[in-house]
Amino acid sequence: MMPGNAQQPASPPDVVDIPGRPYYVDSFVQGNRPVPATASRAVTPERERRAARQDDTAVVYMPAPAPEMQYFARCFAHAFITPSDAPCKANPAPFIRAAIGAALPALRYELPLGGHGADRMLRFRTPEDREAAMARQPFEVRGGGAGASVKLVRDGETSNRRQCRLETFAHVALRDYPRELRSVEGIRSRCSSFGHLFEVDPACFGAPDLSPVRAVVRAEHAREIPRQVRIRWPGRFRHVVPVQILRVWDASESTDANGEYVPIYGPAAVVPC
Predict the structure, then answer these.
(1) What phi and psi, each to the nearest 5 degrees, are found at residue 8?
(2) Per-residue model confidence as pLDDT tens digits over 9-33
(3) Nearest C-alpha neighbor of 245 from the set 270, 220, 228
(4) Which sign, positive or negative, has the C-alpha torsion 121, 122, 127, 128?
(5) Which spans does this entry mark as compositional bias, Basic and acidic residues (predicted)?
(6) Which regions of 4-119 does DSSP assign to beta strands (E)?
């Protein structure tokens, strides 16, 4: 079912006030691009310098990977050796091979350097090979010390990763938006810190310089959407783009009987691939 006011409204809707939204996020323009005349010198107010955020994490919403990349990702796992003081952790690769080889001697894989705190990463030939190894763990590390073992964790399931459910759609207006970044990829990059770009009002692409860009994003919660996106150009120039939330609704309201997204701007809507 489409949202109740699925067609483009004749007049701008009221702005939705969502408590707890971050004041701003930075968005950096990549490449050696000329600075537009509409950009201004970036001056950080004293109150922001005193209260500079020291975030430990950064949020980036990436487009869904192609099927071949999803297949490739299912070939990876991370190997953790326990206990943490096991002697074999000083040189883990031979012990990981010995432990897995004792249980699955015909299994073939590569051992790149580890990530996510793992002792090593494993790259299997196929997802089926990875699942065969997952089903036989944990593996004893022969010669690695009393009680030492190897446990595998699928890529994307390590303890420092969090799975989130993107159940919220938000219709947003990016005000004072520069013409130089008025493309699907440009708008996607500006929105990537707070949501997946699902739709852009087609009228935005023929609009005058610095007119609002209206878009639909999908996020975990509307409070992730900042009040400003600060577009940083080379040479300490920037555009400050206020972000207004025009409407928020549950993602299930924007799908048809086949589970496909139904654009609020109708057939002419620009829906990113």
Answers:
(1) -60, 125
(2) 333 445 888 999 999 999 999 888 8
(3) 228
(4) negative
(5) 44-54
(6) 25-28, 40-41, 76-82, 109-110
- Lowest mean pLDDT of 2-11, 91-100, 176-185, 226-235, name the range: 2-11
CA angle in degrees (0–180, nearest 5) for 142-139-158: 130
Peptide bond before residue 63 is cis, with ω within 30 degrees of 0: no
Element (H, E) at 191: helix 184-191
Structure tokens at 59: 């949020």
Sign of the four-CA dihedral 1, 248, 57, 25: positive
Q: How far is CA 78 from CA 120, 134, 153, in A?
A: 6, 11, 5
H or E stretch at 197: strand 196-200
d(C-alpha 195, C-alpha 188), whole Å: 9
> CA–CA separation, 81 vs 89, rounded Å?
7
Nearest alpha carbon to residue 109 among 160, 152, 70: 152
Return d(Cα 244, Cα 227) in angstroms, integer.
7
Q: Which helix (H) or strand (E) holds 184?
A: helix 184-191
User: Residue 238: in which H helix or E strand, if any?
Assistant: strand 237-250
Q: Decide: 251 and 259 in contact? Cβ < 8 Å.
A: no
CB-based contact 158:24 (threshold 8 Å): no
Residue 135: partners with Cβ closer than 8 Å, 6 or more residues away? none
Could you identify the residue written with the tokens 């005058």? 208
Q: Which amino acid is at 194?
A: F
What is the distance between the alpha carbons of residues 154 and 87, in angstroms, rounded to a whole number? 24
Q: Strand 76-82's sheet: what is its strand order? A: 109-110, 120-124, 76-82, 149-154, 139-140
Q: How far apart are CA 19 and CA 82, in angstroms?
A: 44
Tell me whether the omega of the peptide bond preceding residue 138 falls within 30 degrees of 0, making it cis.
Answer: yes
pTM of the model: 0.65
